[in-house]
Specification:
Strand order of the largest sheet: 1-28-27-26
Helix content: 10-25%
Distance between the termini: 88 Å
Largest sheet: 4 strands, antiparallel
Radius of gyration: 26 Å
Shape: globular
Amino acid sequence: MNNFSSAIKFFLAAAIVIILGALLGWYTFIHRQIAATDAESNARGTTIPTFGGQTGSINANISGTADTGEAPPGKAAPRLWHVTKNPVAGDGFASATSTIYFAELSSGNVLIGDPSTSAVVRLSNTLMPKSYEARFAPDGSVILRSVGESGAVQTYAARLATSTESVDSTSTPMMLKGLYLPQDILEITTVPALKLLYLISDNVGGASLIQSDWSGATQKKLFSSPLLEWQLQVSPENTIVLTQKAADNLPGSAYALSGSTLRPLVENVPGLILRIGKGGAMLYSSSNGAPDLYAQASASAAPVHLPIRTSADKCVFAASGLTAYCAVPTANPGGYLSARFQGTVHTSDSWYRIDMSAGTAEKFFTPDPSIALDVENPQIDANGLYLAFQNGADRSLWMLRIMQ
């Protein structure tokens, strides 16, 4: 009897050990799956939100104040504000304000950030899968570029019928309402009067430049080219500028569209990148492995070689066209453009103020040495108070107050 009782106790103890071991194994498995899911979500630039509140748990992830000790919402942002830690597809300032619109990479959700309060608020909750690029008009309307199931590039144009003044932390996120434009648009930008301007491949291996409204209607062909590789810009005076896409050591040219013909602005410059401002002011860079930057104060002025080495896509004009701001790498890698475009190297940049009339450059801001910022897609608000840009290393969004 004692042997039987001992056997029962042994088997019960063994069963308890087996059950506890199974529970521990299951817990470990679930924990690993959750960690893998979180890692995948972070890699895509998305976060699974919890229930309740306007933004769910993503607010802790998009707010740069969560792990930097910066001013919490309700307080003015610090001079250098990490608006979002999540990658963004694009951003743009609201008209006549310092409010910044931005779209999350991959999800396409639109949010706004206000440097006067450090608040970041979700504006739309319409999932736009595989979004990789966003362009904003001054009213917050957005063009979202994504990859469709077939691999074709899809372009979605959406108008946001609200003002930033009516959106706060208690507002309900809106649906993003719009429509798809033709597939495989090569390049697209917005122009004043809420028009769209885009390049699309034609049937003979070239490209056509099309202007339309935000519904894709009232299409008008402005220009045709046997070349596909163009970048589009629109000057403050609504001049359309086309620049051949840049590569190290490869000569490129930029043209203004006049009627249906191209008028040369800059020709045969290796690695040409150009930014245009008011009154024909231009900043353009060349690259023979390392960049040189030139300033031209007006359409009739001679270009001046500036004493800083950066590419013009790290520059942005103030509204007057007489001042520009450029992010300048502290060191330039070899094969500058190729390495940057491939994402194989990243720079650590300081900010310079360019006096276009004098042709001078003055450093006015250097980030803390612990913060390496590779400036991409710089923007400036209409009042000339803030610069917004993405960090090329992780595509997170930053804002810099220009004045101390």
